[in-house]
Amino acid sequence: MVGEGVLSTMKDVRIINYQHRFVGIKRQSDFYRKAIGIGKSNLTTATTTKTVSMKLERQRRTQNVEGDFFVDHKCIDCDTCRWMAPQVFTRVDEQSAVYKQPSTEKERLNALQALLSCPTSSIHTEKPARDIPEVQKTFPLRINEQRIPGIFDCGYRSEASYGATSYFISHPDGNILVDSPRYTERLAHRIEILGGVRYMFLTHRDDVADHNKWSKRFGCDRVLHSQDVEDNTADVEIKLDGDGPWNLGNDFELIHTPGHTRGSVCLLYKPLKVLFAGDHISKDQSELSMGEQYNQQSVPLQLESVRKLLDFEFEWILPGHGRRAEFKDTQEKNKALKAFLVMKGQAQTQSV
């Protein structure tokens, strides 16, 4: 068990102690009962569970425009599809929906990549997508080969991590998987072609998902701070202790950034000036955000950990949740961080 609660709906569901994860699953539970018109007491048998699941499998939200692509009611509002294919998906009534059908090959490609990445398999096409096998071959996705070569988005988000983004780093001293995508043999095969995985760096306790399957597949050493180790990660190979910093070879520095959780750690790829931030900091639409409403330890401590980032050189923030942030240089990064800290400091003062 993680956090303080486990919510049982139709089956045992492991809930991270996040408000948005609880709400997402509660929304599903409420809709299950509405969709088939039965009470909670009847949601106890395996037969009913299967029936509900089948009914929900392709329940098209009325908020979708007419056409081939649509989002169903299982959507947990993780935002994945909206930033992967913004030309197609938007947010309506706290869930995603299709507001415009793809009209170009690129828009269709992006929409199908979002479909494959959706953690709850909530995106569908009315007609079988015969080009799916070719789209599967695009993962992991290169993020920006000109500025940050060898860094990929793994796609295939896991519901166990509420759709957290996992990254793959190709490096001559050994490749690194940052947090855990949903395990699929197709993705594993593509990563194998890229040279496999030497390290699996887990930024914090929430986004570990299928780490055991990836570890067995590639025999990689998993890295996690000891303060975030739980029963399901007790066998990780490398447990970080203390406040760091630590290093993985010459190019990667590990920065302890407690606040979101006690053992939150960011990975800094120094030569490319990229910070893999986990749930520490990200961009929310156009502004920096640290999702303090989901904080599990201490918001003031998380702010201090954000302040610590002023001492490091990086131009990219690649988060687990939220959107990427790109800066032209370290000075612009620091300007944005300082403005964020001032804004949050004022908000903290006003709330006292």
Automatic annotation (TrEMBL):
Residues 163-321 form the Metallo-beta-lactamase domain. Pfam families: Fer4_13, Lactamase_B. SMART domains: Lactamase_B (SM00849). Signal peptide: none annotated. InterPro entries: Metallo-B-lactamas (IPR001279), RibonucZ/Hydroxyglut_hydro (IPR036866). CDD domains: YmaE-like_MBL-fold. This is Metallo-beta-lactamase domain-containing protein. It comes from Papaver atlanticum.
